[in-house]
Amino acid sequence: MDKILILDFGSQTTQLIGRRIRDLGVYTEILPGDSPLSAVLNPGGGPDTIRGVILSGSPESVYENGPAPDKIIYGCGLPLLGICYGLQRLNYDQGGAVEALSKREYGGIGVTVRREKREEGRAADRGVPSNWGLTQKFLAGFDPAAALRPAANAAAPSVSSPPPAAFHFTAWMSHGDTLTRLAPGLREYGTSDTGYPAVVIHDTKPWFGLQFHPEAAHCEQGPEILAAFVFGVCGCSAGWTMERYVEEARLSVRKKVGTNPVLLLISGGVDSTVAGALLLKTLDAGAVHLMYMDTGLMRKDETKTVKASLERLGARHLHIIHCGEEFLSALKGLEEPEAKRQVIGDLFITIQEREVARLGLPDSYVLAQGTLYTDLIESGQGVGKKARLIKSHHNVGSPLVDAKRKAGRIIEPLDRLYKDEVRRLGRVLGVDEEVVRRHPFPGPGLAVRILGEVTKEKCGILREADAIFIEELKKRPAPGAADRTLYDEIWQAFAVLLPIRSVGVAGDVRKYGWVLALRAITSADGMTAGVYPFPVKDLLEISSRITNTVTDIGRVTYDISSKPPATIEWE
Question: Which residues have a catalytic role annotated?
Answer without folding.
Answer: 84, 213, 215
